[in-house]
Amino acid sequence: MDLVPALQEPLKKVLGPATAKVMAEHLGLHTVGDLLHHYPRRYEERGQLTHLADLPMDEHVTVVAQVADARLHTFASAKAPRGKGQRLEVTITDGSGRLQLVFFGNGVHKPHKELLPGTRAMFAGKVSVFNRRLQLAHPAYELLRGDGEEAIETWAGALIPIYPATAKLESWKIGKAVQTVLPSAQEALDPLPDSLRAGRGLLPLPEALLKVHRPHTKADIADAHARLKWDEAFVLQVALARRRHADTLLPAVPRVPAADGLLAAFDDRLPFTLTEGQRKVSEEIFADLAATHPMHRLLQGEVGSGKTMVALRAMLAVVDAGGQAAMLAPTEVLAQQHHRSITEMMGELAQGGMLGGAEHATKVVLLTGSMGTAARRQALLDLATGEAGIVIGTHALIEDKVQFHDLGLVVVDEQHRFGVEQRDALRGKGRQPPHLLVMTATPIPRTVAMTVFGDLETSVLDQLPAGRSPIATHVVPAADKPHFLARAWERVREEVGSGHQAYVVCPRIGDEDDDPKKAGKKKSPEDEAEKRPPLAVLDVAGQLGRGPLKGLKVEVLHGRMHPDDKDAVMRRFAAGETDVLVATTVIEVGVNVPNATAMVIMDADRFGVSQLHQLRGRVGRGSAPGLCLLVTEMPEASAARQRLAAVASTLDGFELSRIDLEQRREGDVLGQAQSGARSSLRVLAVIEDEEVIAEAREEAAAVVAADPELQHLPGLRTALDALLDEEREQYLEKG
Predict the structure, then answer these.
(1) Which of 19, 151, 444, 558 lies in disulfide reach of 145, CB 3.0 to 4.6 Å?
(2) What's the rounded Cα separation, in Å, for the pair 464 and 578?
(3) SS3 138
């Protein structure tokens, strides 16, 4: 983080080329500074052993335990046919559980001499299962002797740091490397302004680095973490505050709707009144559009809260003011869906330049990669001349060929699916930077919004429009209670029998070559179900058509179909010609068929909490109540079943997103927003540290307002440069 000569020293020079190569390739650590910021994951106390009972499957773990028993077995095998094969089985214990270690062949001699009953050691290896028992095969180990110079030197203090490690580099080797570079911590340049650090009683950075790597007490660890969390939160928030500040300096054309223009005409023809939330958010957006610097707003809305309506009114306001509006959708299915629903909502107002078009009408064009040449040429012409006020499209909108007459507003649907380069490329198509409205139906907890979307102002739509129906969600444990699954298909038939339609969602398409390696890869020991590949659309559709849903009109929809075929399938389903649509997650966002009332999600445990919530939002969009059935073969006690139970227990997306965050590891909390394996958040926990993030945001805003170029804060500038190096640029820009 700190680009200071001593901390910039390449690890190759300090630790030697072999160790440095492993650190660079497997942990992304290149300099002394990188290694100093590779903090321990946890700490072991000498007298206290780790919980062997809680070991995760398929993960590289480090445990401190005592040898309970060691036995050498001989056996015959292809390599040692005369019974000369040797296997050493060592049982270790920590009081909470036991774990088997196994060594084979020539590898048995050293551990056989050293791992005697009663010996304490650190063991590192990958947890696997053999004969239904957890084991470590050929683990690396380091004996913990209570005396002897070397042991006292290596394990100074009573707390042993356990580092995030890899199979190629055990935790204690990383620990030794850290000890080598620790003296350089004295030269770490402090990014926090002195007044802030003193005001909050935080340790100086060199002292925090020392205490995080060589703590003598638990209080040392707490103090170090408190300080290092502030570093991460503050530097990140300063970067975001500087982006917000830079955005306010950009020029933009104010867009104020005409009093009796297109927007007024549209509002007059609405068959319903807007919700209080829609009105409030629209006012925030209109105020932003009228400003002389570009709007950068994130619109969060529960599934079905009417975000598209709010976005459409913003687009109409811009067209009213003489500009054009572009809406970017992540998939062709969604772009076509938006185009269809927007032209339907606008009616004759979308027929600009056509016979029967209304007085204030404009043209609404669709632009996707798979359009025919003639249609595409016409769409491009309409955009360049300004004939089309609104364009809806996919990434195709970003191509160089696409020219706008006067782009005033960009609406991005489902932000997390777009890279920032694409967002900026579209932004560059306006004469001046256009206003930007980003929409997401994935509710984002406040802390994540402050961290990942920190350069955007946030509006939240949490009211459902009148007439929306509740959705009942139930878990269907197919393995424990097969008759529940049979009942699920009966329920689908009942819904179709009363004139409604249903979705069946599967994790996989089924036309790909099954990769046996992937299919066989287990995610956790709790479930036998994981041994088979996830259920596939093409297989399930066939089975349902021949079996429980025989006689109903069943169709399939997935991302690898030709766009025209996808559109045709969606049109038939929307028109009520298809009873059951068996699909992948292509229906996750934006698909709106009010007559669809039931959804069965197969292998529901293979989806994330937020994704299940998104999918469920496709039903109950009309006046009839919705039903969502989560089918799983996971055992009742498993974490996956708890996740599904959480989804079944609440329709509150914000509550679910919080549960989702708490259950996931910190590493993927920010989803694709992070760059590779090296998250820039090492000690900051986005959910638990809400207060730190909120306070850091305030402090950062004040610092940037007073000194936008950070001329008086060289340490902070240096830390920012490190955060914003090439690799992190993408992270901050929330790809």
Answers:
(1) 151
(2) 27
(3) coil
In angstroms, rounded to a whole number, what is the distance separating the alpha carbons of residues 192 and 719?
A: 10
* Backbone phi and psi for residue 680, each to the nearest 5 degrees, phi listed first: -80, -5
Q: How large is the C-alpha radius of gyration of the chain?
A: 30
DSSP codes, 582-601 = EE-GGGSSS---TTEEEEEE
pLDDT mean for each 10 residues of the chain (735 residues): 64 88 88 89 64 69 85 75 78 84 86 90 81 82 65 52 81 88 88 91 94 91 93 88 85 88 91 88 95 89 80 95 91 84 89 67 90 90 92 83 90 66 70 87 71 77 72 90 91 94 90 49 43 80 91 90 85 92 79 88 88 86 88 85 88 76 50 37 71 89 91 86 57 43
In angstroms, the CA 386 to CA 562 distance is 31
User: Are the CB atoms for 211 and 222 separated by under 8 Å?
Assistant: no
CB 391 within 8 A of CB 360: no
CB contact at 8 A, 681 and 446: no
In order, the DSSP letters of 182-218 are GGGGGGPPP-S-HHHHHHTTPPPHHHHHHHHHS-SSH
Residue 371 near residue 312 (C-beta atoms within 8 A):
no
Closest by CA to 694, choosing from 458, 477, 446, is 446
Sheet holding 626-632, edge to edge: 471-477, 626-632, 596-601, 501-505, 580-583, 554-557
Query: Kindly report the CA angle at 386 between 423 and 352, in degrees rounded to 5?
Result: 115
- 333's enclosing H/E stretch is helix 332-346
Q: What are phi and psi of 311, to 5 degrees?
A: -65, -40
Q: By three-state DSSP, how is residue 511 classified?
A: coil
Nearest partner of 638 among 523, 543, 553, judged by Cα: 523
CB contact at 8 A, 644 and 604: yes
- Here the tokens at position 329 are 């959708």
Angle, alpha carbons 332-333-338 (nearest 5°): 95
Question: Which one-letter amino acid corresponds to residue 390?
Answer: I
d(CA 10, CA 3): 12
Name which of 47, 182, 194 is nearest 712 in CA terms.
Answer: 194
Q: How far apart are the first and last CA of the chain?
A: 22
Q: Which residues pair with 98 in a beta bridge?
A: 93
